[in-house]
Amino acid sequence: MDFTLSGEQELLREGLSKFLAARYDLESSRAAAKTGPGWQPDIWRGFAEELGILGATLPESVGGSGGGSAEAMVIAEELGRALAIEPFVDTVIVAGGLLSRAGGDAAAAVLEEIAAGSAIVALAATEPRSGEHWEAIASSAVRDGDHWVLNGTKTVVVSAPLATHLLIVARTGESVDSQAMSLFLTAFDAANPPAGLTVHGYRTIDDRRAADLIFDDVRLPADALLQTDAWPSLALARDEGAAAVCAEAVGAMRKVLADTVDYSKQRQQFGQPIGNFQVLQHRMVDMYMELEQAVSAAYLAVLNLDAEPDVRARAASAAKATVGRAARFIGQNAVQLHGGMGMTEELAIGHYFKRLTALQYEFGSTDYHRARYATLTRPTN
Amino acid sequence: MDLAWSAKDLEFRDEVRAFLDDKLTPELRRAGRLMTSVYADHEASMAWQAILNERGWAAPAWPIEYGGCDWTLTQHYIFSRESTLADAPSLSPMGIRMVAHAIVAFGTPEQKDFFLPRILTGEVFFCQGYSEPEAGSDLAALSMAAVDDGDDLVITGSKIWTTHAGEANWIFALVRTSRSAKKQHGITFVLIDMTTPGIEIRPLVMTSGETVQNQIFFDAVRVPKANVLGAIDDGWTVAKYLLEFERGGGAMAPALQVMAESIAEAAIHQPGPKGGVLLDDPAFAAKLADVRIRADVLEILEYRVLAVVAEGGNPGADSSMLKILSTELSQAVTELAMEAAGPRGRVYQPHATMPGGPVSAFAPPTDGYVSGEPWQAVAPLRYFNDRAGSIYAGSNEIQRNILAKATLGL
Fold first, then answer.
1. Which chain B residues touch A375 with a CB distance below 8 Å?
2. What's the CATH number for B126-235?
3. pLDDT at position B311
4. For chain A, give me the number of helices (H) and strands (E)?
5. Around B7, how many Cα atoms within 13 Å sit in the side-chain half-sphere?
6. CB-based contacts of A12: which residues, under 8 Å, 6+ apart?
């Protein structure tokens, strides 16, 4: 067992941490989310050009530095601590992984753009009737001469309003469940979608951007088909997304716990700091123990991402269920201990609380992962 | 002992139903159904209060001579449940359910004559000035100063967490008229006209994006001593009396039962984590059953406490118990609604809801698009706003302290 970072990983962490401390301002990022474009392109350029983190986990052949899941964890945790709204997990981890595994020239070209900071890629998978059970995805792609014709509805496609490319999951055959699911890649501009594609963009409760995409006989060229039988890769992408979100949550929860402890030492009621009260001390100790379990859970997920699918899935589910529980407990109690101020937009805590709420439902909710864990660990008779 | 409703109760229920069917317009029902907190859209709430007042039902819990109803406990419960079932918007609690009771108990004849009829009609709309930036849980530490100046008190300081300060034309406030060793002494309960010069309101943006809460600054605000409720320096007695109404004055169970029922109805149409229908997912079904069981039990517990009040008794520390149980159950219900909403619970779309106040920094889509159903738009906002339940009216930590001391003698 070894939980220490390598020298290079430590440098990566420090460099990003310093960059964010100097350049990432909570107020500016909220303004970008609420009344601006939904992200900060100059920060993203800095990620690519000054820090190289957008290629940190991508193959060297596309301009990346060939790092793995440990690098992803280090980066996601720092971004979580700064409450970054920029779509690192969606573009680099999830889409980057899918594109790398699909291979081919078109995928390589987009990967190069991701590493260079010029591409944002959104994954259009979830549907209103599938929810988080992606095996029930029903969007279809039917071949018609030189084209594929796509029909279906995708919901809460995170980053779609900012995206330069879409990865679309659709069925190319009659079969059900995880078979015959294919992955399509297309260039995209939310302001100018192809004929038949309706884009309803919106802000999310955690200050990201997302969209509902309605495909009504959308014609994509034949070479938009990136991969058939994409389920194994999709399942891995989901677990990688879940693991990265666990690390992001850890960063956010570290900050929230530290802020809460500080506040409890400063806030005076009944002639003393509220941190003197035993009931609040115990609460903060429980928050601390939830955090340490979440940190351990993130390791569990990340260090098993390269294992065989069932082992990987079990670890990812254990982690996401643990982090979901921790995020809820720590988020809710951080608000409680801050009192009314914790419910306003005036302190950081309210913004972190919203992110800690949303991430409980990302890449599978707590209940989803508990159920999957139960299935994966069920003894056969 | 009997839990069953009598024929008379059923007759009353039908009467209430017929009234609600007749008077609740689609707009009012929409305002009730899509509330994002305990506070309904202000205009809808006041419109509904006027309709209720016409029927004599705006303040059923008041003494009859001031406009209350001669209802049994069961009838109060039936009215509350039927109103929630019919999606009636809530009425603002600060006037009818809070300060009015203190005016009835402590007011001069002039104060009763002036305020009570006007609270009923909505002509007087109260907000509450208790908390201060440095006096939250430790309310008795409040320091907003009221200096004696002949027939007036001159008030300087600040109040915070004032719901609907912008909509209110009166505020009931606790002010510091003297200092002594015991901090509860020297507090005075005053009624202040919000149009008095020297009052400035700063709206607070909440995590839901709504501006329902405010901070108020008072700069040498002159208040006639005739507007003191109870005795000068003895406002704590009035405040304590009123707090028990705030904490346990109403029946929360009916609304929670209806909310839990509506989650069940919505979950029939949502996908479950393993495919199939969410309502059939064992984990979800167990949690839903749990909150519904808690609501059914809370109903009986509330009855038991209200029975004491109906006999003219004081609920005392039991109001703390009801406050804790009802707010924590409400938080569990709003949490479950968030889970039921699924991926779409993440979409920020206040335009599909009816919040209790204006929403800041949000431009609704020009085509009015809503992702999913309106209840899915309500779910996250209600979840955020409902965190207040365990903080307001004395945090639940404070309520547990009260119970430990007053009920268990610890």
1. 274
2. 2.40.110.10
3. 76
4. 12, 10
5. 0
6. A53, A56, A67, A71, A74, A75
**CATH among 1.10.287.380, 3.90.1150.10, 3.40.190.10, 1.20.140.10 for B250-407:** 1.20.140.10
Whose CA is closest to B80, among B334, B243, B258, B247?
Answer: B258
Mean pLDDT on B236-250: 77
Q: State how far Cα A269 lies from the chain centre.
A: 39
Q: B335 to chain A: which residues are within 8 Å by CB?
A: 328
Strand stretches in B38-186, DSSP E: 126-129, 145-149, 152-160, 170-176
* B247 pLDDT above the threshold of 80: no
Q: Superfamily assignment of A123-227 in CATH?
A: Butyryl-CoA Dehydrogenase, subunit A, domain 2 (2.40.110.10)
- With a cut of 60, say whether residue B248 has pLDDT above it: no
Cβ B345–A361 below 8 Å, yes or no?
A: yes
Say yes or no: ipTM exceeds 0.90. Answer: yes
Q: A231-376 domain in CATH 3.30.450.20?
A: no
| Contacts (Cβ under 8 Å, ≥6 apart) of A215 | A139, A150, A151, A152, A153, A154, A168, A196, A197
Intervals of CATH 1.10.540.10 along chain A = 7-119
How many other C-beta atoms can be found within 10 angstroms of the C-beta atom of residue A272?
11
A242-268, pLDDT tens digit by residue? 999 999 999 999 999 999 999 999 999
Residue in chain B nearest A352 by alpha carbon:
B207
Domain span(s) for CATH 2.40.110.10 in chain A: 123-227
Structure-token pair, residue B293: 């069981």
Quick one: fold of B7-91? Butyryl-Coa Dehydrogenase, subunit A; domain 1 (1.10.540)
pLDDT exceeds 60 at position A8:
yes
B269 at the A interface (CB within 8 A)?
Answer: no
Residue in B131, B207, B342 closest to A131 by CB:
B342
The Cα B369–Cα B138 span in angstroms is 45
Report the distance separating Cα A110 and Cα B201, nearest Å. Answer: 52
Average pLDDT of chain B to the nearest whole number = 94
Q: Which of B213, B347, B387 sits opposite A335 (nearest CB)?
A: B387
A34 → chain B, closest CA residue: B361
Residue A364 Cα distances to A238, A246, A329, B293, B376, angstroms: 8, 12, 18, 28, 18
pLDDT tier at A316, thresholds 50, 70, 90? very high
B362-388: b (≥16 Cβ within 10 Å) or e: eeeeeeeebbbbbbbbbbbbbbbbbbb
Q: How would residue B4 be classed by pLDDT, with cut points 50, 70 and 90? A: confident
Q: Which SS3 state, helix, strand or coil, does residue B186 take?
A: coil
| Sequence letter at residue B54 | E
Percentage of residues in chain A with pLDDT exceeding 90?
A: 96
How many residues would you count in chain A?
381
pLDDT digit string, tens, across residues A84-111: 999 999 999 999 999 999 999 999 999 9
φ, ψ at B389 (rounded to 5°): -55, -40
Would you state the structure tokens that stand for residue A362, as one six-digit string? 């990302």
- CA A131 to CA A138: how far, in whole Å? 11
B291, B284 contact by CB (below 8 A): no
Residue B308: predicted pLDDT: 80
Predicted confidence at residue B1, as pLDDT, reads 61
Alpha carbon distance A42, A25 (integer Å): 13
- Mean of the pLDDT values across residues B309-319? 79
Type of residue at B32: G
Pairwise CA distance, residues A372 & A375, whole Å: 5
Mean pLDDT of the B13-35 span: 98
Q: What percent of chain B has pLDDT over 90?
A: 87
pLDDT-derived band at A205 (thresholds 50, 70, 90) equals very high
Residue A151 burial (C-beta neighbours within 10 Å; 0-12, 13-18, 19+):
middle
